[in-house]
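Recap from last week: sequence in, structure out.
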Amino acid sequence: MEKSRTEAFTDAVIAIVMTILVLEFPHVHGSTFADLVVLKDIFPAYVISFIFLVIYWSNHHHIFQMVEKVSGQTLWWNNAFIFLRAPLKTYEKRYNRLKIS
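Predicted structure tokens:
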């Protein structure tokens, strides 16, 4: 299999995970900076999760620059990589619960 399909699939999954991170934000009523106070407990966890995803994606990109063809073993390792990134929203919620408690 060519590496471009694996890269595209991984990019899509990471993009979806990044989108899901934002969907949990509460609606902000108002248009001033002070109205963003409702995000004070959620935003730090979002930033940390986003930074981790960018680091993971960047490392994945650099690793796949060295790959010429994707073997079955590489495909399974890539799927494991994706599987471990997918529940990032759960980690973010746990972080928020620990921080609030």
